[in-house]
Amino acid sequence: MMVKRIVANSVSEAMELVKQDLGNDAIILNTRQIKVGGLFGLFAQKKVELVASVEEHPVVKTVQPVAPQASSEPRPIKPVVEKRALSVETVSPKIVSFASRRLPEALCAYEVLLAEPALQHEAEALYDLLVSTYYKTNDLDQVEQVFAATVTDSIRVTAATSRFIMVTGPTGVGKTTTLAKLAAYYRLTKQQKVGLITTDTYRISAVEQLRTYADIIDIPLRVAYDLQEFEQAKVDLSDCDVILIDTAGRNFLDAGYVEQLKKRHDFSETDVFLVLSLTSKYRDLEQIQQRFDQVPLSGFIFTKADETIDLWSIYGLTKKTQLPLFCLTTGQEVPEDIIWPTSAEVSRMIVERGLR
Ligand SMILES: Nc1nc2c(ncn2[C@@H]2O[C@H](COP(=O)(O)OP(=O)(O)OP(=O)(O)O)[C@@H](O)[C@H]2O)c(=O)[nH]1
Ligand SMILES: [Mg+2]
């Protein structure tokens, strides 16, 4: 491997020199800003030092037939191997690898991000974006901005537009707690008439948990043990502006139940949000999303953002499913630990947490 150190006025100028000297196959091992010249640290010029390498392949030259010499013995024709001069300092290269490709060392903070399971389908495109932006601008702040803007473009957010809001999702992710936060938001902040229905009657404590919140917020709660009672509960709450429905995750994994529910409830007037915990592994979340896809989903609620620094599942799942984000929950406190970020805000959270 031939390694070369180049000092130039800018990264783009250095890149051009690398291309000229080592060709298009050269790999950038390291870049850094250096100061050249000056006296006692004064008047030094800012330069860019770039270290690049290329695999050394012998260059085989076509050899012209040699005219026969005076001697009678014919000379064997040998290929001439031209060795390229190694007019460089030997350096110990710092390589940041991403799969078979390398990121410039200045971008090493992104290496962890690109290895994220939630980014696996996008990693190559994001890699190209990072490297080209870095070499174009030589400015890490701009790289971060362009990266965040790409993430922003992929995340849609939505407001709930229907009178019925139903939460579904696996056990223990925070469905009931989130529903209580939503109830408080619509009742106290938006001053709307709110009703609660729970169809999660598998555990006594589940009903009691919601009843406690309903009492504190001072809103009516109906408990529906079957689909008939569910229909009656809707009639009872017909004067409410918003009706929030808690469910038991297991019901939505039962195809028979979902078929019956679809016959008795008009989903076109319901926003169904899949509640997922950000503490779960991305691959598990992908599977859960597919299993809960039996009713038309309006979007995601992601919970427990306070318990992880890794928010990439939001990006991965919203991009993959094209479903929007409704809200994020950030702690156990009802009603305060819930936010409705814009696409830009949530992408900033994702990128900043990933890079710090
Ligand atoms: N740290 C943290 N904990 C949360 C958050 N949301 C809910 N929890 C906690 O998660 C636990 C489960 O919350 P629940 O609301 O009962 O979850 P669920 O999905 O209704 O659970 P099941 O009804 O049993 O399926 C409780 O201890 C909540 O306080 C959150 O945003 N952050
Ligand atoms: Mg619950």
Automatic annotation (TrEMBL):
Keywords: Bacterial flagellum biogenesis, Bacterial flagellum protein export, Cell membrane, GTP-binding, Membrane, Nucleotide-binding, Protein transport, Transport
Gene3D superfamilies, per database record: P-loop containing nucleotide triphosphate hydrolases (3.40.50.300)
Keyword S-adenosyl-L-methionine tagged: no
Entry superkingdom: Bacteria
Subcellular location: Cell membrane
Domain SRP54-type proteins GTP-binding: from-to ranges: 162-352
Single Gene Ontology MF annotation: GTPase activity
Positions of the AAA+ ATPase domain: 161-356
GO biological process terms, semicolon-separated: bacterial-type flagellum organization; protein transport; SRP-dependent cotranslational protein targeting to membrane
Membrane topology: Peripheral membrane protein
InterPro entries: AAA+_ATPase, FlhF__GTPase_dom, P-loop_NTPase, SRP54_GTPase_dom
Membrane in keyword set: yes
Gene Ontology cellular component list: plasma membrane
SUPFAM superfamilies in UniProt: P-loop containing nucleoside triphosphate hydrolases (SSF52540)
UniProt family annotation: Belongs to the GTP-binding SRP family.
Task performed by this protein: Necessary for flagellar biosynthesis. May be involved in translocation of the flagellum.
Protein known as: Flagellar biosynthesis protein FlhF
Naturally occurring in which organism (per UniProt): Exiguobacterium sibiricum (strain DSM 17290 / CCUG 55495 / CIP 109462 / JCM 13490 / 255-15)
